[in-house]
Amino acid sequence: MSDFEVIETARGGTIKAWVKGVPVEPAARNQLENVAGLPFVHSHLAVMPDVHFGRGATVGSVIPTKGAIIPAAVGVDIGCGMMAIRTSLKADHLPDTLKPVRRAIERAIPVGNGKGGSHKHVPAMAETKLKHSGLMDRFDRIRERHGKIKSATYTTQLGTLGGGNHFIELCLDEAGDVWVMLHSGSRGTGNRIGTYFIEEARRALETRVLGYHVPDRDLAFFVEGEPLFDDYVEAVGWAQDYARLNREVMMARVLMALRETFPSFTTDKHAVNCHHNYVEKEHHFGADVWVTRKGAVRAGEGELGIIPGSMGAKSFIVRGKGHADSFCSCSHGAGRAMSRTEARKRFTVDDHIAATDGVECRKDGGVVDETPMAYKDIDAVMAAQSSLVDVVHTLRQVVCVKG
After folding, report:
1. Is 93 an active-site residue?
2. What SS3 class is residue 66?
3. Cα distances (Å, whole numbers) of residue 196 to 75, 125, 139, 147, 371
4. What is the mean pLDDT of residues 168-188?
5. Residue 237 CB neighbours (<10 A)
6. Where in 9-67 does DSSP place strands (E)?
7. pLDDT in tens, 39-66
8. CB 395 within 8 A of CB 177
9. Which residues of 358-367 are buried (b: 16+ CB within 10 A; e: fewer)?
């Protein structure tokens, strides 16, 4: 018996979906068929168990393409991903009340979108890291060709969280070890890059003479060999590198904040730091292809990744099995079970308080759309992808900072 569901679509193309025991809404299935039918999709479309409706392409899909990239499939939260590191702290080192710890993290890391989501005074660490990264010169070269990509925020947002489903957590593993885990991406500048190139791809689509139908404007694409293709690859690469550095700076500042309460602790030598919204050139099924992971993590043989649950649910450190049919991928989380609007209609603050019992976090109306009930069952998601990853550590949240 196969570990995935094979879907042959009426529009052409093949879908291999790790969704056994996990619901997939009709709108998402329609998007999957739209993407799978594009002639430049290589071999098949791979679908992770956290799949749900997205912009153009579903979140939780792995799209291998030959000679083309779909900017909206990568999205506007370019390079969004996870970072986690284990500390020498133990559960019994934690105080009875964790609110001061949460407040210390919130003082160190700007959260949310808008003015409050940037540093008022850029920390020396962030400024130094940025200068030594080469990102400033690279961004200047991108802007020389694409002046509409204006940003005064990438210097002030390095080491910041953002809003939506981004978070910083303290977690305990099965041995009682304390982990720091966080989720963020390329912030406002990545959004500007993504939005700009999505619009450019739409304009290019209007001028193309194709022998096939593109069923959604958000599936507009760049063709390899075109100047805009190369420019997009350069810009998306910048955003992915910025996102990784953003997580590194943020992690360093969270650890610094923890030392206000815990003056003496160490961390593992290596942290896990992985993207889950990105595009990269890889070799699969006999060809070099562009692999877009839209809400999916690379899970090559032996590679470590992070699969977070929702607020108040479990999260996992995993080791990839290198499953060829998944293009060496796994899910990036539990996946939304409903839209944010639907969650706000369906659940109350009291529901959210009950669902996050035992977790030091915001318990107000502003985060009800992020409540655990708005997401799929993380245990069902993990069961559906048991052939893709092994669980190394199971984490439970005790502190959660949201944007």
Report:
1. no
2. coil
3. 11, 30, 14, 10, 32
4. 97
5. 17
6. 14-17, 45-52, 59-65
7. 999 999 999 999 999 998 999 999 999 9
8. no
9. ebbbbbeeeb
Q: Distance of CA 293 to CAs 75, 206, 275, 284, Å?
A: 10, 26, 9, 14
Tell me the one-letter amino acid at 396.
R
The whole-angstrom separation of Cα 52 and Cα 58 is 6
User: What stretch of H or E contains 107?
Assistant: helix 99-108
Q: Are 244 and 275 in contact (CB under 8 A)?
A: yes
pLDDT confidence of 310, banded at 50, 70, 90?
Answer: confident
- pLDDT averaged over every residue in the chain: 95
Among residues 323, 332, 352, 393, which one is catalytic?
332
Output helix, strand, coil percentages for the chain, rounded to the nearest 5.
Answer: 35, 25, 40
Q: Is 49 helix (H, G, I), strand (E, B) or coil?
A: strand
Tokens standing for 381?
A: 């998601």
Q: If you write DSSP's letter for every residue of 210-250 in order, what string do you get?
A: -SS----GGG--EETTSHHHHHHHHHHHHHHHHHHHHHHHH
Report phi then psi at 289, rounded to 5.
-135, 160
| CA dist., res. 219 & res. 227, Å (int) | 19
Q: Give the whole-angstrom CA distance, residue 195 versus residue 151.
A: 13
Please state, in angstroms and rounded to a whole number, the distance separating the CA atoms of residues 369 and 362.
12
User: Which DSSP letter does residue 374 get?
Assistant: G
Q: What percent of the chain lies above the pLDDT cut of 90?
A: 91
From CA 240, how far away is CA 111, in angstroms rounded?
A: 20
Query: Hey, what are 144's tokens?
Result: 């020389």
> Residue 35 and residue 45: Cα distance in Å, rounded?
8
Q: Distance between CA atoms of 79 and 277, rounded to whole angstroms?
A: 5
Place of tokens 């109350």: 348
